């Protein structure tokens, strides 16, 4: 978990574009990698869970997945 946290923090700090959203004033940064149907927030979350040793079942692309202990 610490390795993943460090990786994500490094990506955050090195992101080339920084934008503050107008409706909630949250700073967001664009990922260097592409973002598309098969690489969306659900798929990334499932991948990070797998990296931490979780058994992720189902299709994360459609939010139809389950983390099993």
Explain how this protein is built.
- The structure is a single chain.
- The chain is of the alpha+beta class.
- It folds into 2 domains: 32 residues, no CATH class; 37 residues, no CATH class.
- The chain is built from 2 helices and 4 strands.
- The protein is globular and about 35 Å long.
- It starts with a helix and ends with a strand.
- The mean pLDDT is 85.
Characteristic terms for this protein:
alpha+beta; two-stranded antiparallel ribbon; 2 helices
Quick recap of the structure?
With 69 residues, this protein is α+β, with helices and mostly antiparallel strands. Helix content is 35%, strand content 23%. The protein has 2 domains: 1-32, no CATH class; 33-69, no CATH class.
Order of helices and strands: HEEHEE
| Approximate strand percentage | 15-25%
Structural category? alpha+beta
Share in helix: 25-40%
Biggest sheet strand order reads 1-2
Mind telling me the C-alpha Rg?
14 Å
The number of helices is 2
Number of domains: 2
What is the terminal-to-terminal distance? 16 Å
Largest sheet properties: 2 strands, antiparallel
Q: Describe the global form.
A: globular
Mean pLDDT: 85
State the low-pLDDT regions, or none: none
- Total number of β-strand segments? 4
């Amino acid at each position: 978990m610490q390795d993943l946290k460090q990786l994500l923090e490094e990506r955050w700090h090195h992101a080339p574009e920084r934008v503050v959203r107008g409706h909630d004033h949250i700073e967001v940064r664009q990922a260097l990698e592409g973002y598309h149907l098969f690489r969306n927030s659900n798929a990334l979350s499932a991948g990070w869970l797998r990296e931490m040793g979780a058994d992720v079942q189902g299709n994360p692309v459609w939010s139809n997945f389950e983390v099993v202990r």
